[in-house]
Amino acid sequence: MKKWLFLVGLTALLLHGAQDARAAAVEELFTKVKVTLNTSNPPSFRNTSNSTPSTSSSWRNKWLVISVEFTPVMPQRQRHFWIDDVTMNIRAVFNGQSDGRAQPILFTGTSEFWTIPLDNRKHIATMFVPPQILDRYLPSTGSASVVSTSGTFVMEVLFKDRAGTVIGTGFYGQRGMSDKDYAEYFSKLNAGAALTIPGAILPRNLTPWAYLDIDDFDFLKPAGGRAAEK
Q: Signal peptide: which range, if any (predicted)?
């Protein structure tokens, strides 16, 4: 009888915790999402300098660095609250070329996190586009052949929980566009509207930055994520 009561109590506790998590997920748990772009040479392991930021207006031969700041919000009356299996999905659209003709190009990429504390503090996640991939799809001539901060890319960042619920959003791109404008643009972006290059945007742990300042970032799952467990 005591064992049965214990199981009933444990089930109720688990269901209560799940309800709290679902209720929190209705609102965006990840707030103040800010997306910025930069470029960098890869880290040099022959000296103490981790990397060399680019000062050139041309980013063609540099790694494209996408930095995403976000603040996980702690649910009310909760302490030491964590969320597991969060994914950060990025879509980046630009005017590129492939097979000798100009066309819109869509880069995509995903980072999978083991767990992230909801601590009301600023976090930073980074993803990268290798220079070889960038060079492959940028136009070879003209103004579009040079990557710049003046609007080469339009980007969408979505944080999702393990159920696929969006818990945070951020955008980057043209000045004067509101988040509503970005959301509408990406909602209408279908598979046929641009040449899609899946996986062109790499998570940090698949780049030369994988083991640099590792404790400054939320811990990523190994390459392949859940697929690697099967």
A: 1-23
